[in-house]
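Long-time lurker, first post. I've been practising inverse folding by hand and with some scripts of my own, and I keep getting stuck on stretches where the structure tokens seem ambiguous. Below is the full token string for one chain I'm working on. Before anyone asks, I'm not after the true native sequence, just a reasonable design that respects the backbone. If someone could post their per-position residues I'd love to compare against what I wrote down in my notebook.
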């Protein structure tokens, strides 16, 4: 990898314009990649004069920031850094008070993650494969009718909800409500949420918290084979265990982190295949490419587009001094198209190798559910291509307004069943 100058060929003011277009503009929402390229080529490490936030679009530098223990959650308002001061403060407060591993620094992070990570090892996840096939097949039946169907609703939402619901132990009848609740709660990880969206997020978090307190009480009385019961029973070698609040916030996190993102992997990934029929045909001919195809979908249309940190102490990014308390935003979607790491980065290639996108983040917060998400992708795309001789786009899809999470409003398709 050759190093690139981080000082920049465009001015800080021009770079700010590009950043604002990425974060809030119509062009950014429809297709952020030309904007990412401008920023990466023009000012790959950009200290924004108007916001005080640093924006990183270079793969190597993004990886360093995410790996560097001097950057963490801290007290900084982090992801709400671009909202107005009051909203940013409230959004930071919500994340701090949610007391889960995603928003914690070591040593709390190490402890909280350590107590549940055993459930997500590659071996434990692989054991779920047959059950995942059982869960996806009935959902695909709906797509196989004569009618056009919104695949996002019929499969991309329902499948990950069923998987995480079953894993955590949320009864089937209760799962649908989480779609609105989780979606509303994601305002707290957006860069510039409105005051209303944040208030809605707070209400949703309260509702999910009530729900899980109740479910924890039920599982204490009557344990079952699910993860929630296991988390209640977990006690590590030092006698440490999760408190009631930690149990509830971990359950909410698993539910929250476990499906909106995977919904978008399935939606965005299907769209990648529909837009690149040659690659869809290649995958159909050679299912051994499934895992690498999923990785390429993650790279090409990353369900999480940005990952923010706060400097916990005075530090450096790419040799430049960053003061303690400064927010640093890494654009994962830009890093994933960095030509210094990915040959022909704007080409969607289901057989790309090597391929190490930053879509699951990096460092201590690297996605706990990455193996599960990859398996879900492998199962859903494998079954889809097995069962349908054709899948066609029925309507031009529209991207959602959110920036941290990139996904579609809907994905109307028609499918022809394989003989
Ligand atoms: C963390 C992406 C699926 C659970 C993360 C992070 C990213 C990410 C980027 C790091 C956040 C940060 O550094 O601030 C994704 C994507 C997914 C996915 C793209 C699907 C395609 C899942 C699933 C689960 C899950 C299925 C759970 C079962 C978590 C948890 C964390 C996390 C618990 C926090 C880890 C920590 O703070 O140590 N995910 N995720 N994710 N993810 Fe995922």
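-- Answer (accepted) --
I ran through it position by position. Result:
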């Amino acid at each position: 990898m050759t190093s690139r100058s981080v000082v920049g060929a465009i001015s800080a003011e021009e770079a700010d314009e590009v950043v604002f277009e990425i974060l809030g503009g119509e062009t950014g929402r429809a297709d952020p990649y030309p904007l990412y390229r401008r920023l990466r080529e023009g000012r790959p490490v950009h200290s924004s004069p108007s916001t005080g936030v640093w924006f990183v679009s270079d793969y190597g530098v993004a990886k360093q920031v995410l790996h560097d223990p001097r950057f963490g959650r801290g007290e900084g308002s982090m992801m709400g850094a671009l909202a107005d001061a009051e909203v940013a403060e409230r959004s930071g407060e919500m994340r701090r008070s949610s007391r889960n591993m995603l928003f914690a620094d070591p040593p709390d992070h190490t402890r909280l993650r350590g107590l549940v990570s055993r459930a997500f090892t590659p071996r434990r996840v692989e054991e779920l494969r047959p059950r995942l096939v059982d869960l996806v097949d009935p959902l695909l039946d709906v797509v196989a009718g004569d009618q056009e169907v919104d695949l996002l609703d019929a499969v991309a939402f329902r499948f990950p909800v069923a998987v995480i619901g079953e894993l955590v132990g949320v009864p089937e009848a209760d799962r649908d409500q989480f779609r609105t609740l989780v979606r509303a709660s994601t305002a707290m990880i957006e860069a510039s949420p409105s005051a209303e969206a944040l208030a809605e997020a707070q209400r949703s978090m309260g509702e999910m918290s009530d729900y899980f307190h109740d479910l924890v009480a039920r599982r204490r009385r009557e344990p079952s084979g699910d993860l929630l019961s296991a988390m209640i029973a977990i006690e590590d070698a030092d006698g440490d265990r999760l408190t009631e609040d930690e149990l509830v916030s971990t359950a909410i996190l698993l539910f929250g982190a476990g499906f909106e993102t995977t919904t978008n992997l399935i939606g965005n990934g299907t769209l990648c295949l529909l837009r690149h029929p040659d690659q869809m045909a290649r995958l159909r001919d050679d299912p051994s490419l499934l895992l690498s195809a999923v990785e390429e979908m993650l790279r090409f249309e990353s369900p999480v587009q940005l990952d923010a940190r706060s400097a916990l102490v005075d530090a450096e990014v790419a040799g430049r001094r960053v003061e303690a308390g400064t927010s640093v935003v890494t654009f994962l979607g830009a890093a994933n198209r960095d030509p210094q790491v990915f040959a022909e980065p704007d080409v969607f290639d289901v057989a790309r190798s090597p391929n190490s996108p930053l879509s699951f983040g990096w460092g201590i917060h690297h996605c706990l559910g990455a193996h599960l998400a990859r398996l879900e992708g492998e199962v859903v795309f494998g079954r889809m291509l097995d069962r349908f001789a054709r899948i066609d786009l029925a309507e031009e899809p529209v991207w959602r307004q959110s920036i941290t999470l990139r996904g579609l409003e809907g994905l109307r398709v028609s499918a022809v069943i394989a003989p």
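A couple of notes from the structure itself: The chain has a mean pLDDT of 91. The beta strands are 45-47, 54-56, 71-72, 149-150, 306-311, 315-317, 320-322, 327-331, 388-393, 412-417. Happy to go over any region you disagree with.
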